Amino acid sequence: MNAPTVKSIFKTQPFPISRLREIPYNYTSFSDREIVIRFLGENIWNILNELRDERKTGRSARMLFEVLGDLWVVNRNPYLQDDLLENPKRLKALVDAMYHRIHSIEERSSGNAKVMELAEAANKAVKTFESDFKLVKKLRRKIFSKLKKFTKKDNIQFDGLARVSHVTDATDWRVEYPFVVINPDHEEEIAHIVKACIDLELTIIPRGGGTGYTGGAIPLTPFSAVINTEKLDDISNVEYQNLPGVSERVPVVKCGAGVVTRRAMEMATNNGLEFACDPTSADACCIGGNIAMNAGGKKAVLWGTALDNLASWKMVDPDGNWVEIERLDHNLGKIHDVDLVRFNISRYKPNGKDLIDEPEILEIPGSSFRKIGLGKDVTDKFLSGLPGVQKEGCDGLITSGTFILHKMPKYIRTVCLEFFGNVSHAVPAIVEIKDYLDQSDSTLLAGLEHMDERYIKAVGYSTKAARQERPRMVLIADIASDDEDAVGLSASQIVQIANSRDGEGFIAVSADARKRFWLDRARTAAIAKHTNAFKINEDVVIPLPKLGEYSDGIERINIELSIRNKLKLLDDLETFIEHDKFIYEEEGLNSDPELNQVKQKMSIDLIHGLREKWGQMLDNLDGPLSSLLERHDDIEYKYENIFRALQSYELRISWKKELKEPLHEIFSGREYQSFLLKLDQIHKNTLKSRVFIALHMHAGDGNVHTNIPVNSDDYQMMQEAHEAVARVMALARSLNGVISGEHGIGITKMEFLDESTIEAFEKYKNKVDPYGHFNKGKLLPGSGLENAYTPSFGLLEQESIIMEQSAIGEIADSISDCLRCGKCKPVCTTHVPRSNLLYSPRNKILATSLLIEAFLYEEQTRRGISIKHFDEFNDVADHCTVCHKCLNPCPVDIDFGDVSIAMRNFLREQGKRHFSPGTALAMSYLNMKDPVTIKIMRTLMVDFGYKAQQAGHNLLKKLGGINLFKNNPPSTIGKAPIKSQIVHFLNRPMPKNMPTKTSRALLGIEDDKVVPVIRNLQKINEDSDAVFYFPGCGSERLFSQVGLATQAMLYEVGAITVLPPGYLCCGYPQTSSGNHDKGQKITSDNRVQFHRVANTLNYLDIKTVIVSCGTCMDQLQKYEFEKIFPGCRLLDIHEYLMEKGIKMEGVSGTRYMYHDPCHSPMKTYAPTKVTNALMNTDVPLNDRCCGESGTFAVGRPDIATQVKKRKQEEIEKGIQKMGVDQPGSLGEVKILTSCPSCLQGLARYGEDTNTTADYIVVELAKNLLGANWMQNYVESSTKGGIEKILL
Questions:
Q1: The whole model's pTM is what?
Q2: Cβ of 53: how many Cβ atoms within 10 Å?
Q3: For the chain, which end, N or C, has fewer CB atoms within 10 Å of the first or last residue's CB respectively?
Q4: pLDDT of 1104-1128, one tens digit each?
């Protein structure tokens, strides 16, 4: 079914004037050549070119390209595929249109054999396209029927979100979409699922966090099943075990394949130990991937990579059998230090119990694991036949692993070194630091990381030295020792090494300071922000003594690329100046044609002179400075050659000084301004296509990450980048290095792997997986980047100007920088794999980009936009609590909360936003201002509604259906049926004992024409604070005890409290639900009203605005209160009370936890610090979203159930930890919070966790003002304590 299109979405014609690709709808890195070859074969591409040479094609070619455009866009967009599968009429319309174009080509062929061959190939492609839809339907039913015997139905996914989430990894290279995605719940299911996939003839792709940088988890065949292991997230406690052949008991931790690496690291840290495998992607990558890739990290310099630290691991092989591998005689250190490494390999049938053969002992010389002299090396995929490790998922699926843990010395210092001189002079400091610490008997190097100047700029590094320049190189080192004096002395010595090389050093001692030093290193993915998040990522390993040469080699490549880019600029400018009408006359401005010719010649001569000068530099980089066309007497003696002078920046090739300024002098005058702007635009476009290489290193073991940001819409730039990669690989080999240290080979490095290595793995693969059951074609000849493409937002925008002028274009812009790094996953409320919730911002961004592409494509066809796409857009927008927590870890500052709001607003404007009765009712209540209406609505919602929900809950409980969804929430792709939504809504009871009236009703201040001013006449004096308290809806209309407790405490401390006139909402709920216009109107109206309040009460010096709600705080920060009450500040009530020295007294028998709301109102002080101070004790933080999130739990109770399961786990864990930390403390457990919505959400866990929930300020009021605090306050304030001032 088509959706009627609102014209405001698309405001202009579908095609721009100039096009980068002739095949339409091609918003990818593929050129026409690759698309033609993909669908029609290389022979057809050759025929097409022959016809063009003969000028026998034109209109026919355009019709063919239309057909190919349709085939290509549907082929790469699962949302379009699903729509056509569900709508046979739309599929028929598309197929008929393609056949019609091909028939037209045949009619116009005039019997030309080549044209007929071309048309025949196109007919065959369309026929295959049509028949594939029938095959897909049939195969989906067959797969579902087979797999549901071994895993839950929800774990078998064919939807667009699942498929696009697993089509690529952090590279964004794509070849084929997976046919099905499987998310097993338990390790025991895996063997049966693998066996079933083999029977179904599906290629199996093992997958974890999807953070790979070489395409190891990218499907290469269309009929593939990705098995996602993220649900296999069981992690044991740290145990001390007897490992075979090891004399002492060793601390180990067993992790499921889906355990996020950071969780394993935290488990070790909490037990005073270290988990050695710590890649930069630790917040998103999973243990299974770490084993399969043999991943490392900064601690690898001390304890090696995953292989060095594995005690055992378990996997399923290509026959569907279990394999358990156990390391014998573990040396508890780096594996290559052992002469002979032994493994015990046991194989079991799919039931995991019956042994197939006698265990095999595999013996491997330690020296064969890595190239001698290197700390990392993962290029040997055969690895002497050791299963699983370093195989990139090509010989089985790893399901769990047991790692040994290490003891870090007691004292750690983090040293940050900034180098400001020549890089060639600074890089040797790496070797000096390593050598110095290697010679130390008491101090260890626990990490040494490097960033070059390009990364320093990309991560937004703040220079620590007192210099007005950015460093050329930064080193960050962790050094450790059990001797505090020794570690301090070593840190000082390292700083001195930096001082000797024009560097400065800074030492961090405390854990917080050390963490801050490392924060910049975690944001290195930001290097690709300016190229819409696409980069070529290589990680070579260089022998430490050769790092200087490698850095010089990279600098040389960069200088050459830079000069070539500037020479290209000269060519582009010359072409423009010679052939374009370069003077743009305006009314009143006259230019002399003869003078123009003179200026034109002068500019061309300038360009010729610069081309000769810059070209000579490029051709003679190794020549002396004396050979330059322009002498530089002041620096000739300082540098041995031109390259060194350019590297130091003392010799520069400057577009600005040498070209731009002279051109501006030549073309001075108003009549040339438009022309000069054109020149600047040409420079900008040329500069955008400049290829450069950026470096950061795990410097301690020579693992250099060599990254090349590329614009995927620039075909020539892509080719230049690949040429640069080839030079990098050749450079690494020439220095006796290897082409991969931890990222693996995947599809990005296959062309650089030597034949003997490929042959060794090919023999192994043919032995263990001859039919290609796992990762078919991967790591074998022909599996490189030949068939890979990447999407391009740049082309999407150029293809249609609608992107520039509509809300959907703004949404596209806001997500275009996503790096797919997955750092958002751990903090995302809607990414809880074990709750069947896999809507991380990363996945949602991938889905949103394809939906935007589907909108754009279908807008340009006669079929129109399908309603199904709007439904999918709703689905993505619904799966967000708008907590904004994804912003902080994101290297490129994408806030998917803001994106979700924009999506909801777009859907509302188009009339396609899904209706939710719960949300609509809540919004109506919040928008009301009339006291009588509010009273009636409150009676209906709270008095009757909450009680009805509680009654329904109790009935469901008696019927035994209460845990139907609560313990094992189903998937929420698409909207749940009404029956299911009701069950979800009833599974946790609403809070009981709700206040009977609003706070304003109790105080008699509901009139919106008066401003209430509340004073405690017995405590105020001339120094008393005057505060403006904005209660918000939650603290006033719903949980009125919160608003009253806030007022009561302000009353108690002697503050003069000014309240707004009448019932007001801040506007945040309306904005976040997608009604931006309503939210803005409320904000504007409130600001006007507050200005009137300020003018009316100008005799009160209001210096503090108080809130008691986090969303109110977020919204009120936009109100610019400093302009309303000059010099005022915005504070949460709890922060204000802490400043006043308020704290609990004499509490016993109650244990507290603190739930910090997603929208924390405490912005000035740390929430935990405030809570601990007020409660006068240490209150542990209980993390994760409560699942209420305003109207989220009533609008989408099915998603809320998934979120709440995760929060309940956290509460239970917190209670358990309390029992360990406070063994003597008994009594009730109370969860404190500072958000009205969270108060409701937390109260709903009481039945399952035996906890109660309350506001901090309410708890303070009870403790300090007595059990009858509310009644006492109301009585006291209403007897002369409230002044009502007419507004």
A1: 0.92
A2: 9
A3: N
A4: 999 999 999 999 999 999 999 999 9
